[in-house]
Design a protein that fits this description.
heterodimer; A: mainly alpha; B: 284 residues; T-fold; 2 domains
């Protein structure tokens, strides 16, 4: 297939590849930006996520915050064998 | 900290890389074993200092955790750990040293400004909360990125958050041999503390009795499940050395779940372990 100027039209697969390449470039940039942010002061909000998750708890209400951190976990609904859930962690004495 | 990290999630590679990066940043910031960490600089300071908001926050919560555990979890015992020879990450081994003098002054922190004063002779050790906090933070990041499930294991502490119930394997400690236990939870943290690792050459362990500043004379294995890994870690540390009745009361007051295994192998359950336990293993 040719274009009006006579050049061979690039196949659609090539276009998709180019788009993928652009996406990859953005991805690399995002990784670098996130890494930089992690090193700087900027991610303080993320680094205090354990506290930020407490919502309206005021910063000075540390007792409430600590109590919340230590409160009950959510076991979730029981699963039906054999649909085993994924194994996401391995705890040991620390 | 100085601990291995494992992430299990369906998050993008970018998000996983970012989560690992956050863990590394927190490790660099809060490790007592790195001379250049913010925590080490703080402990060396000879007067008031300003710390980052995240550092002020974790110290603030750790001090609150001390109050809620009746002092059995105490982040101000870093000097005791160092005096007892625990100056390196446990993988590097440690040797006993001199005993610490009597209890000194307390930490004074203004959480709003980050202004903090650590009295001479006192050192903050975040070893009983930092791994869990970092795991909590990493999991929150992964979930915010759109992951349907995220699990972070950091130095034996685990934080899970998932759309549905997921599994956590709990290894048997040296002192309580047996098959691994399996617990299921949708959102929460798991931590196990006990006198089975980080022993000195003369057999002492790293669990400091806050009343004496020395390794606790009696210590048990405590496996705790609570809302977060940081919370589970604080509770496990306290429950491992507090008198058993007090340990049970502390865990119960928090609303958490725990298995306490005494020296003689006697098991005690706090909370509702059956809600989580899928395979008893060594916890049976």
């Amino acid at each position: 297939m040719t274009t009006p100027t006579g050049r061979t039209r690039r196949p659609a697969t090539r276009s998709r590849w180019a788009a993928t390449g652009l996406s990859a470039a953005v991805t690399v940039g995002t990784v670098a930006a996130m890494a930089d942010a992690a090193e700087s002061e900027a991610p303080e909000q993320a680094l205090t996520e354990a506290g930020a998750n407490l919502g309206a708890v005021a910063r000075h209400e540390a007792d409430v915050a600590a109590a919340t951190l230590m409160s009950a976990a959510d076991p979730g609904a029981e699963v039906t064998v054999p649909s085993l859930p994924p194994r996401l962690g391995r705890a040991h004495v620390s | 900290m100085g601990a291995e990290v494992a992430i299990s999630s369906d998050a993008s590679e970018i998000a996983v890389a970012a989560a690992l990066r956050v863990v590394a940043v927190l490790e660099a910031r809060w490790s007592r074993f790195r001379d250049d960490s913010e925590l080490s600089r703080l402990n060396r300071s000879e007067g008031p200092a300003i710390v980052r908001p995240s550092t002020a926050r974790i110290i603030e919560v750790a001090l609150a955790g001390r109050r809620l555990t009746c002092g059995w979890f105490d982040p101000t015992r870093g000097a005791d750990l160092a005096a007892c020879g625990y100056r390196e990450s446990h993988d590097a081994g440690w040797a006993p040293s001199r005993p610490r003098p009597d209890r000194l002054g307390d930490v004074d922190l203004d959480p709003e400004s980050g202004l903090i004063h650590v009295p001479n002779g006192v050192a903050i050790d975040l070893g009983g909360i930092a791994k869990g906090w970092a795991a909590d933070t990493a999991v929150a990041l992964l979930r915010r990125s759109g992951a349907t499930h995220a699990g972070v294991t950091l130095g034996g502490d685990v934080r899970i958050s998932a759309d549905s119930r997921a599994l956590v394997e709990v290894e048997a400690p040296d002192a309580v041999p047996g098959p691994a236990a399996l617990v299921g939870l949708r959102d929460g943290g798991v931590a196990v503390s006990g006198p089975t690792r980080r022993r000195t050459a003369d057999g002492r362990h790293h669990l400091i009795d806050p009343r004496t500043g020395r390794p606790a004379a009696t210590a048990r294995v405590a496996a705790v499940i609570s809302a977060t890994a940081a919370g589970a870690e604080m509770l496990a540390t306290a429950a491992a050395i507090a008198p058993r009745a007090e340990a049970e009361a502390i865990v119960a007051a928090a609303g958490a779940t725990a298995w306490l295994i005494d020296d003689d192998g006697t098991r005690h359950r706090v909370g509702e372990p059956e809600r989580f336990l899928l395979d008893h293993g060594w916890l049976g």
